[in-house]
Amino acid sequence: MQLTKYTHACVRLDEGDRTLVIDPGVFSELDAALDGADAVLITHEHADHLHADRLSDALTANPRLQVWAPLSVVETLDEFGDQVVAVDPGQDFEAAGFRVQTFGGQHAVIHPSIPVIANIGYLVDNSVYHPGDSFSVPSVDVSTLLLPTHAPWSKTAEVIDFAVAVRAPQVFQIHDSLITGIAANMIEGHVARIAEPFGVTFQHLAPLESVGV
Fold first, then answer.
1. CB 190 within 8 A of CB 184
2. Axis crossing angle, helix 181-195 with helix 156-166, rounded to the nearest 10
3. What is the pLDDT of residues 140-149, one digit of tens each?
4. What's the CA gap between 29 and 6, in Å, rounded?
5. How does DSSP classify residue 7?
6. Which residues, 6+ apart, have CB-to-CB distance to 75 below 8 Å?
7. Which of 8, 7, 70, 15 has its CA nearest to residue 37?
């Protein structure tokens, strides 16, 4: 299948005539990401992963579009009925013909004073793993990891350790729009160098760039 990265944390997976989008947030190129989408997966409710108004517009425009998300997100979209489905960790379902397994369950801690919210990591077709805002390591093998390289809840050592723990042979960065290019290059360089001996190959994807996975 083809993976296309959009700015920040949004990706699109295309295979044949099927399209699955993960985390279309406010920083992403949503017209391109959602165009012709059959299904959408939302990891959690934060706006950089969910542009609620644009997703509502997409659901209205296409009654066949389906969304899977944590309950807190589903409750804000209850007007769409069966188009929007609540998910928990440990589930296995099909979305637009893609097999999806769910992991994690909790957003990484930003600060003890900030309440922790639900966060679901998605593994698509036993291949591509999007952890949302977490370092939840799935209990199965992953061939392509989407690695959050910078966030208010992380530090570089944790990013590296997560890439090593998952041990996906192929790694691409996500959650990378909040820092300068200088910092991004530094973090990605550390990931590539330290994770490589563990069989991990890191590759940077620019916004709107596509790659086969």
1. no
2. 40
3. 999 999 999 9
4. 6
5. S
6. none
7. 15
First to last CA, the chain: 6
Instruction: Check residue 58 and give its pLDDT.
Output: 97
**Distance in angstroms (rounded) separating the CA atoms of residues 36 and 160:** 35
Tell me the DSSP string of 137-201: PPSS--SEEEEE---TT--HHHHHHHHHHH--SEEEEES-SSS-HHHHHHHHHHHHHHHGGGT-E
By the 8 A CB rule, do 120 and 108 touch? no
pLDDT band at 14 (very low <50, low <70, confident <90, very high): very high
pLDDT digits (tens, 9 = 90+) for 175-205: 999 999 999 999 999 999 999 999 999 999 9
Quote the pTM value: 0.96
178 and 9 Cβ atoms separated by less than 8 Å? no
